[in-house]
Amino acid sequence: MAPAAENRPTEADIPVIDLSQAPGAGEAWNRPKWMVYLWSATELLLVTNPWQVSSKIRTKALRAFGAKIGEGVIIRPRTRIKFPWNLEIGDRSWIGEGVWIHNQDQVTIGHDAVVSQDTFITTGSHAHRKDMGLITRPVTIDDGAWITSRCVVTGGVTVGRSAVVQPLTSVNQNVPSNAIYGSATPQVVASRFKTQVSHKL
């Protein structure tokens, strides 16, 4: 039996969270304000800047603010890094043009890994049913993994060793090692290499 019309909720009955009271945003900085602001200026001039073509300058700027970056890493123009002190990249890895690493928590990228153009990696979300408080979880992209162009990788995810994430895929669960991952409904579609053990994290 359908409820009486007068008992049905109206728009006015649906709560709205006061965002001015949302906790946690500044707590994720892990550094004093002056350093966060100085990094913002440095990022704009030396990292995101499309006119700055030297990967070595980007790498030096990131290291100066606490990023752990291995040898032979290539970082292309228009890259954005929220907090370099929460970033680790292994030797010989490639970060493509326009990649945005919004790392309010740790992002670890292994050696010989690729993050391609315009991919977005985020470690943060919000308690959307409670108080919109900040929730952060780390992201790990293992050795040899390839996140192809325009993917989204969310907090708490591990992309396994030598896995490939196909373009435009949203990654909100762990991707097994050696998997090719992604479709309209993301799933493991094949093994990347023929091995005795496949799809193991």
What's the topology here?
Elements: H1 33-47, H2 55-64, E1 68-69, E2 74-75, E3 80-81, E4 87-89, E5 94-95, E6 100-102, E7 107-109, E8 114-115, E9 120-122, E10 124-126, E11 134-136, E12 139-141, E13 146-147, E14 152-153, E15 158-159, E16 164-165, E17 170-171, E18 179-181, E19 188-191
Parallel strand pairs: 1-4, 2-5, 3-6, 4-7, 5-8, 6-9, 7-12, 8-13, 9-14, 12-15, 13-16, 14-17, 16-18
Antiparallel strand pairs: 10-11, 18-19
Helix pairs in contact: 1-2
Structure, explained:
This protein has helices spanning 33-47, 55-64; strands at 68-69, 74-75, 80-81, 87-89, 94-95, 100-102, 107-109, 114-115, 120-122, 124-126, 134-136, 139-141, 146-147, 152-153, 158-159, 164-165, 170-171, 179-181, 188-191. It is of the alpha/beta class and 201 residues long. It has one domain: Hexapeptide repeat proteins (UDP N-Acetylglucosamine Acyltransferase, domain 1), CATH 2.160.10.10. Strands 2-5-8-13-16-18-19 form a 7-stranded mixed β-sheet. β10 and β11 (134-136) form a beta hairpin. α1 (33-47) runs antiparallel to α2 (55-64). The protein is globular and about 65 Å long. The mean pLDDT is 89.
DSSP helix fraction: 10-25%
> Could you say what the CATH architecture is?
3 Solenoid
Q: Order of helices and strands, N to C?
A: HHEEEEEEEEEEEEEEEEEEE
The number of distinct β-strands equals: 19
Low-confidence parts = none
Based on helices, strands and strand pairing, what is the structural class?
Answer: alpha/beta
What attributes does this structure have?
201 residues; alpha/beta; UDP N-Acetylglucosamine Acyltransferase, domain 1; 7-stranded mixed β-sheet; 5-stranded parallel β-sheet; 2 helices; globular
